[in-house]
Write a structure and sequence with these properties.
By secondary structure, this protein is of the alpha/beta class. It has 19 helices and 13 strands. This is CoA transferase.
Length: about 400
């Protein structure tokens, strides 16, 4: 245990140990959430290149931007699961862990001898979370999944993009990242249940299920109307004005979320009489006259700078925002005030900026997350501290190439 470990409060999951068999994005985003909350996450990687994302460019000093983005706060141990000794080590580690996460296709862990039935016999309290594209059953069970496939099959892709054009995938890979939301929710619920029963359980997280669950009011609209919602770009199906409007030097988002905002928008547009205009005095009327309303707003915004518009609409308490690029978003005053970008010490790269934990605990400050590990950085440490292996035994495992 390091001095940092002994003195720091890592988070509310301090003392929970997670065995992480995940790779690429959906699974690692789930184990990342648990690491952010203070769990000890032991990431098992195969010999050679490790997690596939370690090979995704661009690189800096051989380290992938992709891997760095979703593996902060974890430990890396290299085990060859194709060897008998490697499987024994994996089972021993599972016996020492509270949670196991994997995101192979259904059946792969069973074929390896690391399925829930086997490991729950060794560790009845183990919470075993399987994340896959389509879940453990159904006609698509064995099909490989990718973010854009999940966006398409969930209906989310059909409502993304500009009207009367081909649908556009979301820039954020929500089809995969939904695993990082629903996986931890299921795990935390199962940990709570285990406090009462002493027993673990298996959790089946389907990314397609998660995306379907995210449809929200769009699904209910389809139920009500019997018609599919159409893509609206940055606009809203029912709320007007809502979306991006051109400024003299860029664009700005304006959102009339409820009817009460319409009067404020009219004041901001220096046309207070519009708030009493019977053509536009309800949500339904503005929706049906979308082009007219948007033309009125655009005529005003196109004559002013983005900053002038932000000042005007903010003064009138109208929801608005400039459209920021990634670098500007990460350096904006709100992100700085919330400490959302921090520096951490990477074994190869030295000090690097990373995105900080998104969940805060006022009154109980957490330390800066440890940097994403280089491949096998913690192999010796885990074998020594978790399994209690001697240096001689670890050296023998290295010599046989079981670990690296």
């Amino acid at each position: 245990m390091t001095e940092r470990d002994a003195q720091a409060w890592e988070g509310p999951l301090t003392g929970i140990r997670v065995l992480d068999f995940t790779r690429v994005l959906a699974g690692p985003s789930a184990s990342l959430a648990l690491a952010d909350l203070g769990a000890e996450v032991i990431k098992i990687e195969p010999p050679g290149n490790g997690d596939e994302t370690r090979t995704f460019p661009p690189f800096r000093a051989g380290e992938s931007h992709y891997f760095l983005s979703i593996n902060r706060g974890k430990k890396s141990i290299v085990i060859d699961l194709k060897t008998e000794e490697g499987l024994v080590l994996a089972k021993e580690l599972a016996g020492k862990c509270d949670v196991l996460i994997e995101n192979y296709r259904p059946g792969v862990m069973d074929r390896l001898g690391l399925g829930y039935e086997v490991l729950s016999e060794l560790n009845p309290g183990l919470i075993y979370c399987s994340i896959s594209g389509f879940g453990m059953d159904g006609p698509l069970r064995d099909r490989p999944s990718f973010d854009i496939v999940l966006q398409a099959l969930s209906g989310a892709l059909s409502v993304n993009g500009e009207p009367d054009s081909l649908p556009t995938k979301m820039g954020i890979p929500l089809g995969d990242l939904i695993g990082g939301i629903n996986g931890p929710i299921g795990i935390l619920a199962a940990l709570h249940e285990r406090n009462r029963t002493g027993k673990g359980r298996i959790i089946d997280v389907s990314l397609l299920d998660g995306m379907l669950g995210m449809l929200g009011y769009l699904a209910q609209m389809a139920f009500f109307t019997g018609e599919d919602p159409n893509p609206q770009g940055s606009q809203h199906q029912n709320l007007v004005p809502y979306g991006a409007f051109t400024a003299r030097d860029g664009s700005i988002i304006i959102a009339c979320l409820t009817n009460s905002f319409w009067g404020r928008i009219c004041q901001a547009l220096e046309q207070p009489e519009l708030s009493h205009d019977t053509r536009f005095d309800s949500l339904e009327k503005r929706r049906d006259r979308r082009d007219q309303v948007n033309a009125i707003v655009s005529a005003f915004t196109s004559q002013k700078s983005v900053q002038e518009l932000v000042d005007i609409f903010t003064a009138h308490q109208v929801p608005n925002a400039p459209i920021l690029g990634i670098q500007e978003a990460l350096s904006q005053p709100q992100a700085v005030a919330r400490n959302m970008v921090v520096e951490t010490e990477h074994q190869t790269l030295g000090k690097i900026p990373i995105v900080n934990r998104p969940i805060k605990f006022p009154g109980s400050e957490q330390p800066v997350p440890s940097a994403p590990p280089v491949l096998g950085q913690n192999t010796d440490q885990v074998l020594r501290d978790v399994l209690g292996l001697t240096p001689e035994r670890i050296q023998a495992l290295r010599a046989s190439r079981t670990v690296d």
